[in-house]
Amino acid sequence: MEFEIFLGICQTFCALHPQVVEGRMMRSPALCFEGKVFVFYSRKGRMVFRLGKDYPIDRIKKPLQEFNPFRNKGPLTGWYELPFTNKYHWEEMTQLAFDTIQNQKTKV
After folding, report:
1. Alpha carbon distance 79, 72 (integer Å)
2. I need a labelling partner for 17 at 20 to 30 A (CA). Which of 1, 93, 97, 106 fits?
3. Considering the entire predicted model, what is its pTM?
């Protein structure tokens, strides 16, 4: 069920935004904007969002956790995960991650 929700979000974003395509991140399905992954579905059934290291995460009133797929390293800077129990926020967070990466691309 978790993966089907992710797939629905993928279909929606790919249909609405021609520059968004499906890709891979850490062998997991992902969404990419101009070659950069901005969201993916982790093997633990969570959605992981790229918001960037400078994003004011305290403004987001959702139970985000830093994404740390490693045993002996720190978390991936700027990446946050949201478990399936908060699936009703997944699409909103995908939009936020998309807006964030789109804004980063236009500043360059």
Report:
1. 17
2. 1
3. 0.93
Over its C-alpha atoms, the chain yields an Rg (Å, rounded) of 13
pLDDT tens per residue across span 5-40: 999 999 999 999 999 999 999 999 999 999 999 999
Query: Residue written as tokens 């959702």?
Result: 62
The first and second tokens of residue 24, run together, are 């891979």
Amino acid type, 92? E
Asked whether 43 and 36 are in contact (CB, 8 A), the reply is no
Hey, CA dihedral for 61, 63, 67, 68, is it positive or negative?
A: positive
Which tokens hold the place of 61?
Answer: 């009133």
3-state secondary structure of 52: coil
